[in-house]
Amino acid sequence: MTVRVGILGATGYTALELLKILVRHPEVEVTALTTRQEDRPHVSSIHPQFHKQLDLHLENWGPKELADRCDCVFGCLPHAASASVIPEMLDAGMKVVDLSADYRLNDPEVYAKWYGADHPDAERMKTTVYGLPELFREGIAEAQLVANPGCYPTGVSLALAPLLKAGIIKPEGIIADCKSGVSGAGRTPKMATLYPECNESFAAYGVGTHRHMPEIEQNLTVYSGKSASVIFTPHLVPMDRGILSTCYALPDTEASEKELLNCLNEKYADEPFVRVRTDLPATKHVSGTNFCDITVRRVKDRVLTISCIDNLVKGASGAAVQNFNLMYGFAETTALL
Ligand SMILES: NC(=O)c1ccc[n+]([C@@H]2O[C@H](COP(=O)([O-])OP(=O)(O)OC[C@H]3O[C@@H](n4cnc5c(N)ncnc54)[C@H](OP(=O)(O)O)[C@@H]3O)[C@@H](O)[C@H]2O)c1
After folding, report:
1. How many CB atoms lie within 10 A of CB 127?
2. 240, burial (CB in 10 Å: exposed 0-12, middle 13-18, buried 19+)
3. Ligand 1 atom 15: the closest Cα is on which residue?
4. Cα-based torsion angle of the residue sequence 153, 157, 159, 165 in order, rounded to the nearest 10 degrees
5. Is-above-0.70 flag for pTM?
6. Which CATH superfamily hosts domain 151-311?
7. Fewest C-beta atoms under 10 Å: which of 97, 224, 250, 337?
8. Ligand 1 center–CA 277 separation, angstroms
9. Which of 39, 57, 73, 76 to probe ligand 1 with, by most ligand atoms within 8 A of CB?
10. Using one digit for the tens of pLDDT, what is the confidence trace for 69-103?
């Protein structure tokens, strides 16, 4: 079966990464790419990587035109822009994997508090499947809409959730200290990501206010059944891609380091994309891959986890294809290993 696939917001970084994966997916034909630009740019003028690889123009398509050409769309739009078009895509019968934050939270009040506006599609957001298969695989295969997780929440949640559920760490007092490469902010120009601003510099941002904080808390709480409280501090690192998350938690047992590792190994033994390691992971070890590498340590009176992902792959487009594979009954690893 060939699935006809479209990408919304195809000029951006997550779209570029999706295209790299989808052109080698044996069950996919990319049939539509969208942009707000009216001059129908060829994909190779936007992403020169696709010269002689893909002969397609980007168009300012609406839901009707897309429904004629696609069975499934990946939404690579900013939040709010995404929720303004996704309901029409779903009504037109297409499946959707949304990479934006619009359908990740399940509580409209939490959304309104952190995103500063009421959700335009509040009923749907309450029940949308959250596409982090290693923790919430149930429901993805049957879903018409999947909310693809945020990049930081992926690395942090995969490291902490099993330890919390097993009663090894306490749900309160968790600190997630995370560092991201600059592509995490997207291709759309912003002051903070201009070369002279971020090169040779290292800065925290969104302290106490970053919107991934409630998403991390939601994941840990839903998965463990315990009300998790997390202080999440992101940092911008002058590298292209990658996220390293160092998390600090209070132990709830006297578990040894071996037992901590066993807990993660048991959880992820059959997961193709999570690698539990005894040595220390680095962003280079997972760059360009859909892996999340994790280790755990006991240091004084804390449990530490260190996890690494590529923000554009396991943190975005690789995870989106993993969800797509589940939605269409393909092997979960298709085009990703
Ligand atoms: N970058 C990451 O590491 C990452 C990780 C996980 C999730 N995400 C999420 O994935 C989505 C895409 O991220 P990205 O990094 O690919 O962003 P990006 O590089 O900035 O691309 C977003 C694209 O959306 C289009 N767009 C921008 N504003 C729009 C609007 N108001 N209405 C309609 N289209 C608009 C633009 O295309 P045109 O100007 O051509 O129309 C733009 O190229 C975002 O929601 C982001 O939060 C990103």
Report:
1. 11
2. middle
3. 186
4. 170
5. yes
6. Dihydrodipicolinate Reductase; domain 2 (3.30.360.10)
7. 337
8. 33
9. 76
10. 999 999 999 999 999 999 999 999 999 999 999 99
